[in-house]
Description:
- By secondary structure, this protein is of the alpha+beta class.
- It folds into 2 domains: about 120 residues, 3-Layer(aba) Sandwich (Aminopeptidase), CATH 3.40.630.30; about 160 residues, Aminopeptidase, CATH 3.40.630.30.
- It is built from 10 helices and 12 strands.
Amino acid sequence: MIQASADAGTGGVTIRELRRSDGVSFSEVMLGSYGPFEAMLGLGTRGISEFAPLFRRRTWFLLKFFKTIGLLPLRFFVAAEGGIVVGTTMVIQWPKSGYILGVGVRPSHRRRGLAGQMLSRAEQLTAQRSRSWALLDVEEENHPAVTLYRARRYEQIQSTVWYRCSDPTTMGAALRPSSSVRVIGKSGRKAAAAWCARRVPGSVTAVLPPDAARLTHLESLGQFPGTARETWSVGPVDAPVGFVSACSRGNGLPGMLFLPAVDPGASRDDLGRLVQEASAWLTARGCTVVLAAVPEPARPAIPVLEELGFSAQLSTLTMARPLTVA
Ligand SMILES: CC(C)(COP(=O)(O)OP(=O)(O)OC[C@H]1O[C@@H](n2cnc3c(N)ncnc32)[C@H](O)[C@@H]1OP(=O)(O)O)[C@@H](O)C(=O)NCCC(=O)NCCS
């Protein structure tokens, strides 16, 4: 970002990195691209001021500094016409992949190949950084976007069902107490990641190995500056049967639960208490709504979530494309 790196454009549109002067039009395109998934996460309610922190002088200076020393993990590519942003994309470098998000094009500029060109830039950068995969999440019902990604050879590696509980304070009256739910804190996350890696399909761990920072990559969707996070396990200390992490994002936003995996044999009471404990932690932080992300390895928890008052909202697909590393 920061400095212009112009490409040959399409019909007066140039694909380049984001500039600080792009603040307003960048924010407009981002907001205009939000759909049901972002609405479920509570994004977009503050209008374009939601993006103001990114363009603050101090933040911009820090981004520029980290870019200069080659340590900036996040880059933005935009499509711009006459100084106005008409398309957006971001890419974050993770250990084995570049995670692409924020793909959007103004309605007036769609079907001209702009999203494809921005993706191409994000993929090139990722390959230059020696990552073998480009990766993204897309709402299953977003047919234009799913068609775009399939056309670019992205393939589904995981699906996630998102659940919502609109009254988390009343959940779980019928559950027996379980003494085996415990906070594992930061120090326990490395062992939790190793546990998850044994339960997640190889096709996912090849691209997204669970690590202490992210037991599931979906956790990154709940983490912003100022987010509080906690993690719990359930079952015997030396043989846990499930983990959950919770993110409280403040500002009245829904709290988020991430269930990376659960053992098929985990009991209803254990899983229920695990979810209940994490939800109570969120409600104590002012979250009045709780969302739960449930990828395939955590599906045995679904009946318990439904019993606790959660209902399915939508599904997202995690899609990946192999890259040729330079
Ligand atoms: C999805 C989106 C980013 C596509 O942007 P775009 O610049 O129009 O896409 P491109 O022109 O690069 O399209 C490339 C290919 O994707 C597919 N595609 C794109 N839009 C499509 C649509 N509405 N219906 C069917 N296929 C579509 C086609 O295969 C297209 O090739 P073609 O035009 O030669 O048929 C745009 O529709 C958008 O901003 N949507 C709202 C935000 C959003 O959903 N973002 C994705 C979040 S994961």
